[in-house]
Specification:
Distance between the termini: 65 Å
Order of helices and strands: HHHHHHH
Largest sheet: none
Oligomer: single chain
Structural class: mainly alpha
Helix content: over 70%
Shape: flat
Radius of gyration: 22 Å
Number of strands: 0
Amino acid sequence: MNKIALTAGALYAIVLLRAGGTFAVGWLAGAGARRSRFAGRISSVKFRRAEKAIQRWGAPVVAVSFLTVGFQTAANFLAGSMRMPLPRYLPALFLGGAAWALIYATAGIGVLEVLGRLFAEQTALGVSVVAALLLAACGLVVYRRSRAALPSRDAAVEEA
């Protein structure tokens, strides 16, 4: 249990720094955009309405974003760029970050222990599993790149 607590504490510190830093970068980017040539677009009625909604209701989205993969950075950046007040943002950061740290600490340690036992007791099977995972990942990368390299149907129709 001590191992999980230590790992969760370290992950919690990391997520607070990372997500808080993303929020700060978003805040600075939003401030810069408000002083740029985009200031006219940002001051529109629709944008102000969206900004007010995010400032008021965005905290639950920020907290839940920590339970997703790939959305938490966007949610924290958007919260910062839309000037979510710190009294609303910080509780969401603390709760969501704690959930993220606990999930990754428990699941991460569990996976590492299973892999350790697998390699210790059945090395050939462990190597086979890791090799299969690596081949699957490489195959996925090759498949995605080949799909991205193909011209889309719209482009083919336009050329004809």
